[in-house]
Amino acid sequence: MxxxxxxxxxxxxxxxxxxKMFCACPVVDSVSAPPNTAVCPVCAGLPGTLPVxxxxxxxxxxxxxxxxECRINPTxxxxxxxxxxxDLPKGYQISQYEQPLAVDGRVGIKTSQGEKVxxxxxxxxxxxxxxxxHVAFAEETLAEDSGGVQAHKAxxxxxxxxxxxAGVPLLEIVxxxxxxxxxxxRAYAESLRRLLRYLGVNSGDLEKGVxxxxxxxxxxxxxxxxxGTKVEIKNLNSFRALERGVAYEIRRHTALLxxxxxxxxxxxxxxxxxxxxxxxxxxxxxxxxxxxxEPDLPPLVVSxxxxxxxxxxxxxxxxxxxxxFVSQYGLNEAEAAVLVEERAIGEYFERAAEWxxxxxxxxxxxxxxxxxxxxxxxxxxxxxxxxxxxxxxxLVGLVADGQINTNTGKAVLAEMFAGGRPAREIVxxxxxxxxxxxxxxxxxxxxxxxxxPAEVAIYxxxxxxxxxWLFGQVMKKAGGKAxxxxxxxxxxxxxxx
Length: 497
What we know:
The protein is α+β, with helices and mostly antiparallel strands. Helix content is 38%, strand content 21%. The chain folds into 3 domains: 3-136 and 153-306, no CATH class; 316-430, no CATH class; 438-496, Arc Repressor Mutant, subunit A. The chain contains 15 helices and 18 strands. It has a 9-stranded mixed sheet with strand order 2-6-7-12-1-13-14-15-16. A 3-stranded antiparallel sheet has the order 5-4-17, with no helix packed on it. A two-stranded antiparallel sheet has the order 3-18. Helix 5 packs across helix 6 (333-339), helix 7 crosses helix 9 and helix 9 (389-400) packs antiparallel against helix 10.
């Protein structure tokens, strides 16, 4: 019997606001900031406090909903989602349930099987929880509580809670169960991350947990219209883990069904070292959370004028930019996809292309080749680049015009990268201009051939690859400044002359 996976995704994205969702506490880095330093009575859940919705968070949520082609609800409601976790100080989470901010969206993805549309069920606002750190005593440690009971025995686990993240604005994006493979899931997650970064609402850092993708996986008989029992995976901090975790669960479900067993609905975690999932808890249903309207927050009313003002400020989105780069600049799909991966890279490319009459593909090639190599090696982002688009375009032009050769161009770019100086200034100061003078190159070639008669004889005996070695000798004599094309032509002319 054949089985097919049915997968839906829930994505939680922390919004890049300055303050939390319902209070004035600053949003701090949950990894580097000292624990429990950005906490107030509101986000700590103390009695008598009142939440106030963050307008910037709502506007960021509208950006995402519009980019996903959702229908915005003019009025949405906040609700209390009750569950008791050590990192949830109030004992409930303020979220949206029956009437979310936006519904019925769509997003396109590209896979090896072609393009596919994923339906977005809902986009809603909520607040994040705190952060737990689970540790165990390495040595026996004794302490007495108020009753004189000794605790903290060696190896006994305990947990630390940091409430800096509690109350941070969180956007939840829920898809329909439109995924049929682990590849589909990864393609969507990468596409959504790119979109959120373009919109400037999320950093996309999975390792820090500011973007959390949680797949719900079930498997059913191929052709069936019913849904199987679903399992949700948590603790996925990379696209690789996401793809492997989904693939693992698909195999596990299929093996259970083929063996006549049932799948248990539950939440599982991903163990990277074991490359396997492990059970965390039985999966809750909506009624387990006992949702009811948040009594301390009024309905969230979004006017049409506000929606339109947000829509007007949306940037060109990645897929539209990719299609335009192909049609406007003559790039192929692969080249365009690389350049639109980051908004800042696409903008840098366009500004550089405007400064030269060369084909844009020449600029693109230098960006995705030599410039990317320098950025990767340094660990810098393109926003930190000291080379202006104009200076970069000038360098590409110097190579294309034959004023310097490609190897010299790479060396000049490295110096520009380090110091931010213009290409022409470096070339002039160091005397790097390419030599194309026929007489000079002819003398260099003649000297190299006369100094290496054995290699010349080998070449004339039929081993033509020796020409590359001879080319190197000529370039060494010319200090690397000779025009490579003229050198190769002259070597061939003198060897056969």
